[in-house]
Structures are given as C-alpha cells and as structure tokens.
Predict the 3D structure of the following.
Amino acid sequence: WQSVTFKFVTLAKRKFFGYRPEQVFGAEVFMAEPEKAIVDSFDKPRYAGGVEQLARITWRGLVRVDLAKLVDYALRMGSHSLVQRLGFMIDSLSKEGLVQPLPADLRGMLLKCVGNAPIYLDSARAKKGVFSKDWRIIDNVPHDQLFSEIEVK
C-alpha cells in the first residue's frame, strides 16, 4: 500500500487487546496503543528489528507511556520471556542513565512473573553471556551492540 510492504502476524485471541480506532488517510484502522506496541515488540522481537531495536524502542517510548498500563499489558500477554526481556531491558537502560528506573511496585509485579527457565536476551546469538539473576536472562549481546541504535545527544 503506497509503496509500503506489510507483514501480517497472527496473534492468539488472548493477545488481541490494547488497540483503538484511528483515522489514517481517511480510513478508520485499529492501531496499537503505545504501551501495546512496546509489548508486541517484545513478544515478537524479530518483527521489531531485533534486540537493538528493542533497546531503542524502550528508550524512546518509556517516557511516553503509562508505566502501569505497560506492565499490565506485559502481564496480560502471558509470556515469561516477554516479561524477562522487558524487565531486563528497562533495568539495563536505567543502569546506563538512559531512562528512569521502574517504580518498585511495578518492577515487583514483573519479577513475580519471571519464568523458571533462563532465557537468552537474543535467542539467535551465541549461547553464552552474563546471567541476570533477577530476570533469569543470559545477556548474550555485547553492550556496545545492545545500545547501538540509541542516539545520545
């Protein structure tokens, strides 16, 4: 459509929420709320451009969203790996001074939904890295690559 290629991605019914009608070029379409767009990106990172883009999306989007709604939407998705990656990413950006830390109550809600099995930050990369005990995630993305899409001025 207008020289733009779209990729349709099927979602489970339980994941179809957080959308609102918007007018786009005279047509009504359903568009994800900002919080849901972030959550969807963490649910299917390959369609969001990979883990470096997740860092950029989080960095740019976190100041624009309702954090309580973001956490609620993340939990509603029912995915441990989504929660683990989102929590880890917010903590990582916070440690770099790029975003404010999540309020303790919201961070605690995410931590309660961390899965038992450790996961890799990027499942397509080498299977080695630094283990995050809180998020049960193996950070297998070099620091300079993880933040390579963030434009710090």
Q: What stands out?
A: The chain has a mean pLDDT of 93.
